[in-house]
Amino acid sequence: MNDIKGYCEPRFGAVREALAGLLAQQDVGASAAVWIDGEPVADLWGGYADADRSTGWEESTLACVNSTTKNMTALCALILADRGLLDLSAPVCAYWPEFAAAGKEGVLVRHVLSHTAGLPDLPGLRTVEELYDGEAVTAGLAARAPAWEPGTAAGYHALTFGFLIGELVRRVTGLGIGAFFAQEVAGPLGADFHLGLPAEHDHRLAALIPPPSLTDAYAAGPPPGPDGAPAEHTGLAVRVRDVNAPAWRRAQIPAVNGYGNARSVALVQSVLANRGTAGGVRLLSPRGCEPAWQEVFSGPDRVLGTPMSWTTGFGRFGNAFGWGGWGGSLVVSDPDARMTVAYVMNQMADRERRGDDRGMEIVMAAYGGLH
After folding, report:
1. b/e string for 155-182 if b means 16 or more Cβ within 10 A?
2. CA neighbours within 13 Å on the CB side: how many for 143?
3. In the chain, count of helices (H) and strands (E)?
4. 50 exposed, middle or buried (CB, 10 Å; 0-12, 13-18, 19+)?
5. Which tens digits make up the pLDDT trace of 63-88?
6. How do residues 138-194 score in pLDDT, each as one tens digit?
7. In whole angstroms, how large is the CA radius of gyration of the chain?
8. 20 to 30 Å CA-CA from 177: which of 26, 113, 187, 220?
């Protein structure tokens, strides 16, 4: 079954065709969405929500988008910065005094958001379950010394990104980042995206399916360096079975355990592509969006093992910005075109071995509709 459901303006018919092609070849269930000027021009879904192909992927189906969650976490920080409550150029310890320990007085808020803070991993954590104790994780990060002089190098903060920003949000607002996102972002926009997933939504969940030929013991990790050697600062291994567990859904791991579909991902991120508004709702000023696409760091990333351009919260790719998640989900925003494109699926790809261009197929199809 690769019948595509949903809405698509005729000029974006290539997006529908691309999604249908993916579902016919490698995807089990997936969704794709394109927002322009803060409004939907394509909102599509199809396939199945389960590996047995017994339950259809519906309009309301949700999936864990893994690191695509980082786009949501970063938006929360930019909203607070736009409101004058969080200074991107201030030391983190101005809001979180304990963070000054072990030589981190000079770590700035923008260092945390641009993966240049020198805290890319969580040494000492042995089990995924330890991630569920957010207070202990953040206390451990506050006590640690940076792995390099903050701001001088980048290293993808795969798990720590969310804990660091989440604690800043909590120190500034008194709310956990999941509650802040629900109250200040998802609620006003009417976006069906969640940082952590309450039990009442479990029936809508499309569990992640490990890559073909692999089991649910397949673990996340950075790709090897350019010479084939492991990249620096590897972190705790998270397996597919961990991400599919109820305990993961109930936790707050704000770098990686967001739940949504292409519609909700594109809706939220279109705020940044459309100068602060989506669907007639303003979340931040036009100027408040600019850090999302302004480069903070360019150079080799010590964890990813590849050259990267980081903005305040996002990866930068030419004139566009955004980020993707382990297994294949992706969101890309183009502020010049005022366009956001999102792709969310349940069939994971083993990118390290075989590459994964599915999300980019959707993005390129969307660009085709602009001309």
Report:
1. bbbbbbbbbbbbbbbbbbbebbbbbbbb
2. 9
3. 13, 14
4. middle
5. 999 999 999 999 999 999 999 999 99
6. 999 999 999 999 999 999 999 999 999 999 999 999 999 999 999 999 999 999 999
7. 19
8. 220
* Contact predicate 278/35, CB 8 Å: yes
For residue 228, pLDDT beyond 60? no
Buried b (16+ CB within 10 A) or exposed e, 340-371: bbbbbbbbbbeeeeeebebbbbbbebbbebee
Residues 6+ apart with CB under 8 A from 106: 91, 150, 151
> What are the b/e assignments for 268-291, b being 16+ CB within 10 Å?
bbbbbbbbbbbbebebbeeebbbb
* Both structure tokens of 49: 């929500």
DSSP 257: -
Query: pLDDT (tens digit, 9 = 90+) per residue, 315-356?
Result: 999 999 999 999 999 999 999 999 999 999 999 997 666 678
Give, in order, the Cα–Cα distances in Å from 194 to each of 59, 87, 180, 254, 275.
16, 26, 11, 10, 23
pLDDT attached to residue 355: 74
* DSSP alpha helix (H) spans, 120-159: 134-143
Q: Tell me which residue of 145, 169, 179 sits closest to 96, measured CA to CA.
A: 169
Residue (of 241, 238, 244) closest to 215 by Cα position: 241
pLDDT at 264: 98
pLDDT digits (tens, 9 = 90+) for 84-115: 999 999 999 999 999 999 999 999 999 999 99
Q: Per the residue annotation, which of 31, 60, 67, 213 is the catalytic one?
A: 67
Name the residue with tokens 């309301």.
60
